[in-house]
Amino acid sequence: MIIGLPKELKDNEYRVGMVPSGVHALVADGHSVFVEEEAGQGSGFTDQEYVEAGGTVLKSADEVYGRSDMVVKVKEPIEPEYPRLREGLIVFSYLHLAPLPVLTKALADSKVTGVAYETISDRHGNLPLLTPMSEVAGRMSIQVGSYYLSKPRGGRGVLVGGVPGVWPARVAVIGGGTVGVNAAKMAMGLNADVTVLDVDMEKLRYLDDVFLGRIKTVYSNHYNIAQLLASADLVIGAVLIVGANAPKLVTRGMLVDMNPGAVVVDVAVDQGGCFETTRPTTHSDPVYKVEEVVHYCVTNMPGAMPRTSTFALTNATQPYINRIAAMGLEGAIENDPLLEGGVNTYKGHITCRPVADAQNRPYQSYSSLK
Questions:
Q1: Were 264 and a residue from 52, 130, 195, 235 both cysteine, which residue would form a disulfide, CB within 3.0 to 4.6 Å?
Q2: Catalytic: 270?
């Protein structure tokens, strides 16, 4: 198989879809890898490293897309990349299609096979290709939230860990999954007053045990969220429904009762966000205020830490890339039926039910279209 590695175009996106060692493994197995010039530069990988690994560096993205059977990316294609999409091409990447009808239409119209990292599960019900970036984003959420709590950045001027004799920041984490757990770890490590909300009581019991009672756990409902937000300094949105739009758990009315200068970080923004007031932002222009509350809603948070993020991501994705390259997508799915959950578009159809439901479009299963 011919695998393409284009440079990412999203605002301040410095990650890359494959590290040189991954290219080396593919070439050793008899595949060809075309790498766009400077694709790995943002993550600290030179073109020469890819050449030494056996890859071929090409000048343009048009060449990479045009000559490849499968393109491996980090973030979803954006508008300048749409003309490069074509029938038969596999795009293996984060896609987050539910809130992106224009991209969904572009993938369907071009008959691209869109395989999304974030909807692939394993036999334990985990999301192995989403987990590493959720870990990065969860930990980053406390870093960026702390930064924007400073007065010069529009925040309340609250130090997350406080000092002796002064209350630490009150941090509310909505969602006890991978993002929420990592956010709680970081906030607890800074000695913040941390509360995690979730609807899964077993998860709350687990968190209470793991954190030895050092964080508070509260059942998530409208009333409890509103009560916590009224006193919170920093709120992390960490809710995920696989493939679907995130539920809007925080209303604009709740923000009215929050302290002016409080900060919300909506890590769920890729799936539409769990705050009613969420709108996607970029690393170039990351924040805005609604009801005097600072909103940070960057859609590619881990892109700001590309060295760590690229290694973490490719540790998880490389085995899947290798299997698809060796067996083809159909063969890889026969080998691992759970991989079918990652196929979001195929032969012009939407093959991920949550995406189809979110956009009120017809759904067809991948297996029915083979």
A1: 235
A2: yes
